[in-house]
Design goal:
Blueprint: H1 3-30, E1 40-44, E2 50-53, E3 59-61, H2 65-68, E4 74-81, H3 83-86, E5 100-102, E6 107-111, E7 120-123, H4 127-132, H5 140-143, E8 144-146, H6 147-154, E9 163-166, E10 199-200, E11 220-222, E12 228-234, E13 240-249, E14 254-264, E15 272-282, E16 287-305, E17 309-319, E18 325-337, E19 341-359, E20 365-377, E21 384-389, H7 392-395, E22 402-412
Parallel strand pairs: 1-4, 5-8, 7-9
Antiparallel strand pairs: 1-2, 2-3, 5-6, 6-7, 9-10, 11-22, 12-15, 13-14, 14-21, 14-22, 15-20, 16-19, 16-21, 16-22, 17-18, 17-20
Length: 413
């Protein structure tokens, strides 16, 4: 063996040893995102209300256990805070299983626990609670449904459901009672969020107050299931794999896409998979808002050095009849790796409400499309690098990954 070759081998060995030594520090630093660690539980003092931190540290109010299913919740990392402190933390959209129901004036949380066959309606007493839970002017039309639309979408007659009163988060005052007439919240700093709650069993009452008129909402066209989907893969054998799928989830009542990309002990490989699911609609006006509530649950696996990475992108698009994209919104992007050393498993789950403003030609057909792309890339001496937003039928792993819309509406302007 030549002296130069021997020195090169020593240099590589030294870099690998340094990577192993640095790994605990790099890995710990990668977990320090946002104010709270992913899955952290924040309890509002003196109430049953809980918020859960997503992967970026954003807090979400959880409406019930069904809404938290499949999300990271670390019950061992739980703190109690005051109302004043809670309002200073960044908050996102609430995590709800069946939305909020506007029935005449009152607004109800539709609370549907995983072990319950039917949901219950819990009257939210104040607009301050509605805002604290994460409802604002951006997501009100998406998350708060009138009785007719809610019954059509979820298949229950509201009058047959058990009713009660939701335990207040903010102490009610005579002027703070939440009704449909006053329940279009004003935006707050950050965007509020959700969590499990409890209630009393007393019947809901409708306080007497003078209604402040609100504009009549535009006509709501709700999609029930996707019209179709497709996908594509790029993989360079023998060390790469990539797969995709799309489906309709009858439990979550949403269109779903899955994708998986894996490098298995390969160097300088770059597999990727893209999955699409779509609905078509015919325009009734010259402009509209496309509203979607999108949730995701993914996982990245890294065990390599020198440039190993994995990444995902989630996008909502509107296309015209010639397949030209006329409106697009980046819903979520995540990348891990690209450092000297990478390793371990990193979860990626969250929820976002998206609004697309789009110009239309009345009578023309358009397509709303949800797009998920997963890619994995290895560098020198890579071991395993994977992007997984799929279940075991796609990836073979015991993990329920997905990206789905649980509500998709077109509101005619």
């Amino acid at each position: 063996m030549s002296t130069a070759t021997f020195r090169n081998l020593l240099a590589i060995a030294g870099l690998v040893l340094m990577a192993v030594a640095l790994f605990p520090t790099v890995w710990a630093a990668s977990q320090q995102q946002g104010v709270f660690r992913p899955g952290a539980v924040v309890e509002l003092r003196g109430t049953p209300h809980l918020w859960v931190a997503d992967e970026q540290g954003l807090l979400h109010w959880g409406g019930d256990t069904r809404a938290l299913a499949g999300k990271l919740v670390d019950w061992n990392n739980r703190i109690t805070v005051s109302l004043g402190d809670l309002r200073t933390y960044p908050r996102g959209d609430p995590w709800l299983s069946a939305g909020l129901l506007k029935w005449d004036d009152p607004i109800f949380l539709v609370k549907w626990e995983t072990e319950e066959a039917r949901p219950r309606l819990l009257h939210i007493l104040t607009i301050a609670d509605v805002e604290l839970f994460g409802i604002n002017t951006n997501n009100y039309g998406l998350l708060v449904l009138d009785r007719t639309e809610w019954e059509r979408r979820f298949g229950f007659a509201a009058e047959t459901l058990e009713r009660g009163v939701l335990a207040p988060a903010v102490t009610p005052t005579p002027s703070s009672v939440a009704t449909a007439a006053t329940a279009t919240p004003t935006p707050t700093a950050g965007t509020p969020s959700p969590s499990p709650t409890s209630s009393t069993s007393t019947p809901a009452t409708t306080p007497t107050r003078t209604a402040t008129p609100t504009p009549t909402p535009p006509r709501d066209l709700a999609f029930q299931r996707p019209d179709g989907g497709t996908g594509s893969t790029v993989e360079n054998e023998p060390f790469s794999q990539a797969h995709w799928a799309y489906a309709w989830d009858p439990v979550a009542r949403g269109g779903e896409v899955q994708a998986w990309a894996l490098v298995n002990f390969g160097s300088f490989e770059h597999p990727r998979a893209t999955s699409y699911v779509h609905n078509d609609f015919r325009a009734a006006t010259r402009s509209a808002r496309v509203l979607a509530n999108i949730t995701w649950n993914g996982r990245f696996i890294q065990a390599g050095v020198f440039g190993a990475r994995a990444a995902s992108t989630i996008t909502l698009q509107v296309l015209d009849s010639s397949s030209r994209v006329i409106a697009t919104e980046s819903v979520h992007e995540r990348e891990v790796g690209d450092t000297l050393v990478s390793g371990g498993t990193i979860g990626d789950n969250g929820q976002r409400s998206v609004v697309l403003n789009v110009g239309l030609t009345p009578g023309a057909t358009y397509r709303v499309r949800l797009v998920l792309t997963c890619e994995a890339e290895s560098g020198l001496l890579a071991a395993v690098t994977a992007c997984t937003y799929s279940d075991s039928t796609i990836s073979g792993a015991s993990f329920n990954g997905y990206v789905r819309w649980t509500q998709l509406d077109v509101l005619w302007d």
